[in-house]
Amino acid sequence: MFRVIRLTGAFLLPILFCSVVWGFAAVPEPGDRLTVSGVIKNPQGKGVKEVEVEVLVNGRHQETVDGEEVVTGKHGAFMAEVILPAGSLPAAKVEVKAHKPAWRDLQPSPVQVLEAGVDQHGNRLFQANQTFNMFRKITPAFWLATGILILVYVIIAAELMHRTLAALLGAAVILFISYTAGTFDKNYFILSFEDAMAAMDMNVIFLLMGMMIIVGVLKKTGMFQWLAFKSYAIARGNVFVLSCILMVVTAVASAFLDNVTTMLLMIPVTIEIAVTLKVNPIAFLIPEVFASNVGGTATLIGDPPNILIGSYAKLSFVDFVMNLTGIVGICMAVTLIYYVYWYKKSYLEAEVKDVGRTIEYLREEYKITNKKLLILSLGMLAFTIFLFIIHGVLHMEPSIAALTGAMVLLTISRGNIVEMLEHEVEWPTLVFFMALFIVVAGAEETGLIQAIAEWVANMSRGSLPVAILLIVWVAALASAAIDNIPFTATMLPIVAYLNTTIPGAESGVLWWALALGACFGGNGTMIGASANVVTVGLAEKAGYHISFLYYMKACMIPMLITVALASVYLLLFY
Questions:
Q1: What does the mean pLDDT of the chain come to?
Q2: What is the C-alpha separation between 185 and 101, in angstroms, rounded?
Q3: Is residue 291 located within the same domain as residue 385?
Q4: Number of domains in the chain
Q5: Among 208, 247, 249, which residue's Cα sits nearest to residue 227?
Q6: Which terminal residue of the chain has fewer beta carbons within 10 Å of its beta carbon, N or C?
Q7: Are 37 and 78 in contact (CB under 8 A)?
Q8: How far apart are the first and last CA of the chain?
Q9: Residues 426 and 553 in one domain
């Protein structure tokens, strides 16, 4: 049977004594508790993640309180806590060293230790906080990322394959190399899948998608055809005036929609009017597409490079209008004068016989087809533009404004979302952007962008005027040689770096230099801007071939003139 044991005082005393002794022994003696925190950045000021950080005291490695390795987070920040014998600080020499594959090791760097008080256990508290810089090493990943980026550019410029396929192929190769050769040797690792997904700027993607849907609804109202008819009616048969009106209409529409969409809508109508006048449509189309690129420069949503710049630099719709509308207006005036003179011979050959009858024909042919839908569409477009204007105050991304306007418009107009997504949203363009972001991110992650930024900074020698001229002209000439969209995406981190290193660049003038250079420079050749490619393609489909050399001959000189005017404007007013 069970035996009951009664605990007497004599039996409990030894147990109590041992417990007290053990309790005192378990409490560590007070020491010096040191918290070392900081951020590890690259020379462009961007945090470097996944860096292994080590704290040294008098040259010896220190284990952290929790015993875990210290690794920087997404934005390059880290924090380590170590316990030292009492009295070690602040006399001890405290250093930080860091390591990451494919980066130069951060050699032991001393940090300043400050006393912060005493905790409840009697530990003296010390802290140190500092920012460190790490630099990329030239590794095989650098050359691979550079080669892939250049190859994608060459394929796009030479039109060897569709630009979307070229960008997707480049993105796929980058990720494939990273997870094959890069798995066994970190020197071949270019970009992680997580970083590739994060590199895709969905603000740009959804902004374009929203505007495409709004324009898709507007297209069903016949508004753009009606605008073309009104342009002819106002010109009253004067082909010179008609050309100017078409350019102005195209420029204004491009500022509030986007230049690619505007040209898609204007080209068929322009060809119809040109055929009626027995004028080669090219004499209207090239001035129009030039004007679309100039006019689209004025706003955040007018030209794809501006969308990229605005999203990256957190610039508002109002910022673009306030800083760029003036020079855009001047360049539009130059564009009108230049092309009226350039195509003078073609315009004089126009057959303008019965103006009144032609106007009546166009009135019947190009009229508003759905007034109710037009009112709804214009109302929602005005609401969307209003959101663009105040989005800086609301801290709202432009894509939210565009998607809200598009979805509300589809809802109140009872639009077919499936039809819109299938026929009006230009998925190849959106996918091209997404893939291009990955390719550029590969170049940035391996150090190519950093090298270019440092070269531009060295060339400018800290001079803001020199930096402005370099960015404007490099952007213009490069955008003429290749599509201005991938070039702008490449330049974004470079300009961000220069803004922090060149005195006076805090005003944001270098962003405007990039916008003007890329948008105006894209006018130089038929592959310089997406609107150019669309125009040439649709013209050829209608039977009017535009060669690469002819396009350059018609557009290179006015492009250089507008870029020169932009340079003078930036130097005078910033």
A1: 85
A2: 9
A3: yes
A4: 2
A5: 249
A6: N
A7: yes
A8: 100
A9: yes
